Amino acid sequence: MTTPNIGWLYFKDYFSELPQLAYKDNPDFRFKKKNEYIFKQKLEDHEHRELLKVKMDKIKTFNVRTEYPGLITGTGITHDFSDEDALKLGFSFDHTTGLPYIPASSVKGMLRAYFPQRLLEIAEKKKKQAEKENKPKLLEEAKMFEDKGKAIRDYLIANLANLGVEGVTPDILHRLELNIFEGYDGKPGKEDKHRNSIYQRDIFFDAYPQFSGYEGNGSSKDAGRFLGEGVITLHGTDPFKDPKPIKFLKILPNVAFSFQFRLHDVTIDDITIDTTKKYMLFRELLTQFGIGAKTNVGFGQMV
User: Fold this and answer.
1) Which pLDDT value is given to residue 224?
2) Regarding predicted confidence, which is higher, 297 or 45?
3) Comparing 49-58, 86-95, 207-216, which segment has the lowest mean pLDDT?
4) Residues 130-140, mean pLDDT to the nearest whole number
5) Fewest CB within a 10 Å sphere: which of 42, 95, 208, 215?
6) Where are the domains of the chain?
7) CB-based contact 249:73 (threshold 8 Å)
8) CA distance 255 to 63
9) Under 8 Å between Cβ of 258 and 207
10) Nearest 10 degrees: Cα torsion 132, 141, 117, 75
11) Are 157 and 147 in contact (CB under 8 A)?
């Protein structure tokens, strides 16, 4: 690969020239230069596509691309320094290639978050707690979670119908959720008695960038870049105080990501949801709701 290991640049080289935290006495040290070097990297080397492709049978793959303002992943990883030019948030990079990626656990967790059972269980717990402690406020919260869970349930049932899977009931959807995310075979009753072997469970893989269609301002130096700078401006408790911008790393818009799964057909009450229907449902959820951090402010949207 001709692209340098950006993970190493960001987490190791980024701070390597700090002379025992006395970097302000070093006129040659600038975080801004480090940032610019990372930002100018491009996905020009196609070798990484083969390196990151899962070499197994029954793999289902689809590509989606990021929309404005981009994608953030791995913000919980520590990467902080008190300098106005330093990028403050962590980021997920593949150890071997150094490319940004979305961990398989994040892909699986995001998809499950858009199934209804967790919300409905929270609603039921809050209802019981409200009755036990006589707290009307908890009943309001329970109703909110219940309404959201039912809305997601109806949305998924309608989407499965659009994919040609007719007759899905709330119980069938619940068993489909258990099949996809916990490995149950879809049979009714005590789920722990009907768990599939590891070889029959759906597997989620890391998602990686494939190519960049980013064009920036139209100049050749911007075309093909895939990383850039995002900014959060915090005002604190005083709305009239000048904000202090917090800079962070992000994946730019129009960068294609490849999502990979190893899926299995499942039959629930004579209704079969095959591997194609599953991965088409996953694609719908990813493009509808997004993935990564700060999706509530527009990041992580895919098309």
Assistant:
1) 86
2) 297
3) 49-58
4) 88
5) 95
6) 6-102+202-297, 117-200
7) no
8) 10
9) yes
10) -120
11) no
